[in-house]
Amino acid sequence: MKLAIFGASGFAREVRDIALENGYESIVYIDKHDAKRIDGFPVVREADMPKLTAAGFSFIIGVGSPSLRQEIWGRYPDLSYVNLIHPASSFGYGQLTVMNKRKGNIVCAGARLTNNIKIGNFGIYYLNCTIAHDCIIEDFVTISPGANISGNVRLSMGSYVGANACVLQGKSITEKLIVGSFSVIGAGAVVTKSIPDNIIVKGVPAR
Questions:
Q1: β-pairing, 37-38 with 41-44?
Q2: Is the pLDDT of residue 47 over 90?
Q3: Domain coordinates in residue numbering, the chain
Q4: Strands 58-61 and 41-44
Q5: pLDDT, tens digit, 9 for 90 and up, residues 142-160
Q6: Alpha-carbon gap, residue 136 to 47, rounded angstroms
Q7: pLDDT single digits (tens) 134-145
Q8: Rounded Cα gap, residues 79 and 69, in angstroms
Q9: C-alpha to C-alpha distance for 182 and 196, rounded to whole angstroms
């Protein structure tokens, strides 16, 4: 199997490791990086995209920023994007089936998803994050290492949850706590109520 990873940062290397765990044998990075190889893996330019698609490569966006992932997808919406799921992650009843119907998601080791979670595309579920029951995770969401998303929460498109942050439970399955689109929750913050679009919150409780 062949995989091209957008990006060549530390996270892209972590994505490469998940790809290796999933049996990919031919892996390249797509980046403006000056190096021709990183850890022995080739770095190619976006100008080489036609060659990659012709050679049967699948694609993943190994970039942590939600807005940059959306921008890359906007340039190349028709590529064959795959999910990368580390075998040391876990899924509740039916959740892996739900995930496999989406595309572009990256699930790192130790990520835990329980049940009745609606999953979008191009999300990042970093190391040891947890997502509880009855959540909605929209497109281009990033959930950082150790973050905890309690039940009945909606993470709107492009929202970013910082490392070790906690989003407390919504009132019910029909009255969810909502994190607005492209809002950022700072590392270690505790979100106790819904927050609007395009803001940054931090602290305990998050403000």
A1: antiparallel
A2: no
A3: 2-75, 84-201
A4: unpaired
A5: 999 999 999 999 999 999 9
A6: 36
A7: 999 999 999 999
A8: 14
A9: 9
- Fold adopted by 84-201: UDP N-Acetylglucosamine Acyltransferase; domain 1 (2.160.10)
Mean pLDDT of 179-197: 98
**Ramachandran angles phi, psi of 101, nearest 5°:** -85, -5
Q: Is 107 left (phi over 0), alpha (psi -120 to 50) or beta?
A: beta
* Cβ neighbours for 183, distance < 8 A, ≥ 6 positions apart: 156, 159, 160, 195, 196, 197, 198, 199, 200, 201
In the block, tokens 């913050």 appear at 189
Indicate the fold that domain 2-75 takes in CATH: Rossmann fold (3.40.50)
- Spatial neighbors of 48 by CB under 8 A, at least 6 apart, are 30
* pLDDT of 17 strictly over 80: yes
* Predicted local distance difference test score (pLDDT) of residue 32: 81
